[in-house]
Each structure stands twice: as structure tokens, then as C-alpha cells.
């Protein structure tokens, strides 16, 4: 009748966030008593999160401010972990206990393995503004640099010189011009970097 559904494994990006799914279909005559999430690492099990009649409790200080479970959606007990750290890898178990109308208790659990990985920044792509790359003098435009990988990713813009060198222009994902001049024509480069 009541069954939890989750996934076997989740891969999260270091410094990013990930959701561990744990859902059920609420059914009449059964009330959620407690919901808890625990983690098993190096053969020890610790409870991270517990929701009961007295509210939500985060029991492991290293998860404080980083984990949450949706409040207003019955049947959704999924755990969101933010700012993933390498030691967050482990086996996470979602356990829900329901009380039925005849006061008996039903317990179900589902376990997900979390793997936190560091991902190098990818080769960035440059997106041109709405008007494209050929523009009239006086127009305003921008170029945006995008890469993926473990955050934070920093961006730097360079401009090519006739001598074949690159001159550093600015940091940040966006390179903007408020009023283009003919002398702004040229070759621009973006560099993306993470730790």
C-alpha cells in the first residue's frame, strides 16, 4: 500500500547541490508520524534529519544549513544537500513511519548511495548578445562566457592583439559594451577556471 520510491545512486558535484529522491503516495487512514534521513559512512550510522510532531531537526552539525526536506508537499520526503563536500559521499537512508487509524505503525525505508565528484571546468562557450557578432557602431552588446564543472567557476576575458598576444580585459562571465566603437572590432577570448 504505502511504498517509498527513490533511486539507487546519485552523483553530486563537489560544491554543488543534489537531491536524494524519496517519495510516496499519501493514502487515507495513514498519517506520517516521523520522517528521518540517516547516513552510513565507514560502518557507522548517524541520523542527519528528523521530522516529527515537534518540527524539523538537523542532528548532525556538519549538515546544518545545508540540508532540507520540502515542507508543503505531502508524500515528498526528498533530501536536498547543498554545498556538497567530499566526505558527504556515503549511503543515505530515508525512513518514514506512518500511523494507521487503528494505531498500528508502518515503517518503510529506501537507501541511496551518494558519490561526490570533483569536475574540472569544461572548455567554455561564448554566447553573443541578441544582435549577434556584427554590429553597428554605437550599439550596446555583450558576450557571455559559460562553462560547467564544480563551482565556483571564474571567468577572464582577453582580447587578441595584432602581434598574436592576448591582453587581459576583465574578470567575470560577461563582457559588455555600452556604445561600440569601430576600434572594438577584433578577436576576444574567454578563459574558465575552477579549483
UniProtKB/TrEMBL annotation:
Pfam families: Ig_3, V-set. One of its GO terms (biological process) is negative regulation of T cell proliferation. One of its GO terms (molecular function) is complement component C3b binding. It comes from the Eukaryota. SMART domains: IG, IGc2, IGv. Residues 16-111, 124-195 form the Ig-like domain. SUPFAM superfamilies: Immunoglobulin. InterPro entries: Ig-like_dom, Ig-like_dom_sf, Ig-like_fold, Ig_sub, Ig_sub2, Ig_V-set, VSIG4. This is VSIG4 protein. The lineage of its organism: Eukaryota, Metazoa, Chordata, Craniata, Vertebrata. The gene is Vsig4_1.
